[in-house]
Amino acid sequence: MDSTMERAGNFLPRVDESATSSNAVDRRVVTLTAPASAAAEQYRTLYYRLERMREQRPMKVVALTSAMPGEGKTVTSVNLALAAARANPERRILLVDADLRRGQVAPTLGMRNKQGLAELLAGECDVRDVVRRFNATRLAVIPAGATPEESTQVLASARMKQFLKAVREGFDEVYVDLPPTLPFADAAILGHQMDGVLMVIRANVTPSKVVNQAVEQLAGAALVGCVLNGAEVNATPYLKNYVKK
């Protein structure tokens, strides 16, 4: 797998032909559907905050998770990765869907999910079969693929460690969409192998007690911050007034 991934980092993957229509992209991918919006600007701000962190510490592989399902971690992962690809077109940037239970990266981008990380880790295909370039960007994407019977066992395997080692060598920035933290052990297992972990929290929905439990479950992982998702512009008077100008 190592030699294959090393070769993968040296070429720009093929465009996924199923993602040629902008209508196929989830409207919440605002970095594409509404790049001038306040929401898109917040994703760019998040990216540049990570860039400032990178000045202080190595942070090539960044993962995103949430306490519970439905908090918007996948939409945040996609927007963040696209913001990175647009900010630094010279860098090799990869988005990996490691939520093998309910992978949503491909549907969010309007891409096919026939083969992905699950098949790669099972040894059923080559990385060139699963990594693809999203439409008119330089962003490389590896979807989740089919749901395996034992997702936790697959993500805890030696093959997954080899995969992460390989993408570190083959890409400049890697963003990993993890499963939610509390329902499964997957995020805790992979979180320790990441350079940084972001916790996505749904505003006015996720109780602080639940967030604290998720943080405790990730103990030992490099948790670098939280992303408040779904907050209304009205909640920030300065931003509301600024956007109106």
Which SSEs are present, and which pair or pack?
Elements: H1 2-8, H2 30-33, H3 38-54, E1 61-66, H4 73-87, E2 93-97, H5 105-109, H6 117-121, H7 127-130, E3 132-133, E4 139-142, H8 151-155, H9 158-170, E5 173-177, H10 186-191, E6 196-202, H11 208-217, E7 223-229, H12 237-244
Parallel strand pairs: 1-5, 1-6, 2-4, 2-5, 6-7
Antiparallel strand pairs: 3-4
Helix pairs in contact: 1-9, 3-4
Question: Could you please describe the fold and organization of this structure?
Answer:
With about 240 residues, the chain is an alpha/beta fold. It has a single domain (about 30-235), classed as 3-Layer(aba) Sandwich (Rossmann fold), CATH 3.40.50.300. Helices cover about 40% and strands about 15% of the residues. It has a seven-stranded mixed beta sheet with strand order 3-4-2-5-1-6-7. Strand 6 (about 195-200), helix 11 and strand 7 (about 225-230) form a beta-alpha-beta unit. Helix 1 packs parallel to helix 9 (about 160-170) and helix 3 (about 40-55) crosses helix 4. The longest helix has 17 residues, at about 40-55.
Tell me the distance between the termini. Answer: 53 Å
Radius of gyration: 17 Å
The percentage helix is 40-55%
Structural class by helix and strand composition: alpha/beta
Beta strand count: 7
CATH secondary-structure class: Alpha Beta
> Roughly what is the average pLDDT, rounded to an integer?
85
Summarize the structure.
The protein has twelve helices and seven strands. The protein is an alpha/beta fold. It has a single domain (about 30-235), classed as 3-Layer(aba) Sandwich (Rossmann fold).
